Amino acid sequence: MTGEPVLEVEDLRVRLRTPRGPADVVNGLTYRVGQGETVAVVGESGSGKSVSVLALLGLLPARVATVTGRALLQGEDLLTMSPSRLRQVRGPGAGMVFQDPMTSLNPVLTVGRQIVEGLRAHSDMSKAVARRRAAELLGEVGLPDPEGALDRYPHELSGGMRQRVVIAIALSNSPALLIADEATTALDVTVQAQIIDLIATLQADHGTGVIWITHDLGVVAGIADRVLVMYGGRCVEDGTVDDVLEHPAHPYTRGLLGSLPDLAAPVGPDGEVPDLTTVPGLPPPPTDLPPGCVFWPRCPVRADPRCETEQPPLAVVGPGSGGLEHRAATWCTEGEAPSAGSPAAGASSRAGGPAAGATSGADGPEGGGR
Ligand SMILES: Nc1ncnc2c1ncn2[C@@H]1O[C@H](COP(=O)(O)OP(=O)(O)OP(=O)(O)O)[C@@H](O)[C@H]1O
Ligand code: SF4
Ligand SMILES: [Mg+2]
From start to end residue, where is composition biased (Low complexity) (predicted)? Predict the structure, then answer.
């Protein structure tokens, strides 16, 4: 499901000042989120997923972060907006659920007051109507005793309950864009499914575009229209969920998919299940990115001499589906459009390790730097 763009991000870059020197944490992200569309952002820890969305909403302190590029929310550039306009836009324009719920809840105000204030800041609802709506929202996100919860302080709730309160606040103004950063990771699967349904309803009713940041590829397969794979602050692959999960073209994506448990694998005689395959090695620190392909130090198929000196641009790697291009930043698939029988497609079978079945000719993967 895609429509008019809700968000268009162009060449987003974030440099952080750190004690170890400048850290290039986001390095040229370009993507769009259509009306009613869900874009999943995946990538291992430290790849810049959270920083990239905090930058969009002006939530990185200017003394530590330099943000450049463009981010048009319904045609208006978030990166050049005045702070007062940004405050107006957060809520009905863009709602965000953070990884840590305590960062967005005020510990000295009751849950009810926080939801009511959020509702009344962007509408002419009376206090009584807003309070009724707040209780309704808490019920919708599965909080037991929503009326009672309105009068409680955040510290009186469990972590999972607090997370549901934050989700209720983010949904309360039916935002045009919802950014969910590991929003349901801490919740049990039943509540997670309930929240996902709630968001799907919001999308159907209001055309909300969703950026869903997660480590859970099962959720990605279930809810996303398209997937953006981040590594070292870059998008290394994007496309429709079917293209990326069924025909991954970048060796890193193949590694990520290889690290899913193979549910069909035989269980050992004592009931033990096989280890998860992981991508060997560690991502590079953002203060010391490699000069060539950012994945070079860990890439099991690095054969092209350009790998060491040039960052491959995102190039179209297959026919694409759903009217969207399938792109990847690699030349190891140059000249071969991945298809169901190709090595890239084979790697999505979950059975192999990183780049299983991919043509080699290079050294094995290395951990760390060069
Ligand atoms: N305030 C900060 N000061 C310095 N470096 C930071 C700061 N916040 C994040 N970073 C660095 O920026 C990089 C990207 O961090 P980010 O939190 O965006 O990763 P992530 O992809 O969201 O990871 P995770 O999956 O663990 O949430 C990391 O190397 C992190 O150490
Ligand atoms: S083959 Fe080269 S360009 Fe492709 S991911 Fe590996 S190191 Fe990067
Ligand atoms: Mg994060």
Answer: 335-363
Tokens for 20, please give them.
């170890």
Q: Whose CA is nearest to atom 1 of ligand 2?
A: 302
Instruction: Kindly state if the Cβ of 365 falls inside 6 Å of ligand 1.
Output: no
The answer to whether the beta carbons of residues 52 and 12 sit under 8 Å apart is yes
Instruction: Give the residue whose CA is nearest to atom 27 of ligand 1.
Output: 45
Exposed (0-12), middle (13-18) or buried (19+): which is 363, by Cβ within 10 Å?
exposed
pLDDT at 250 over 70: yes
Strand partners, 68: 13
Pick from 231, 253, 296, 314 the residue to mutate for probing ligand 2's pocket: most ligand atoms within 8 Å of its CB: 296
- Residue 296 one-letter amino acid: W
Residue bearing the CA closest to ligand 1, atom 4: 18
* Ligand nearest, relative to CA of residue 294: 2
CA of 19 to the centre of ligand 1 (A): 14
**Domains contained in the chain, CATH given:** 5-224 (3.40.50.300), 243-347 (no CATH)
pLDDT tens sequence across 35-74: 999 999 999 999 999 999 999 999 999 999 999 999 999 9
**Residue 298 C-alpha to ligand 2 middle, in angstroms?**
9
Query: 73-87, 281-295, 347-361: which range is least confident on average?
Result: 347-361
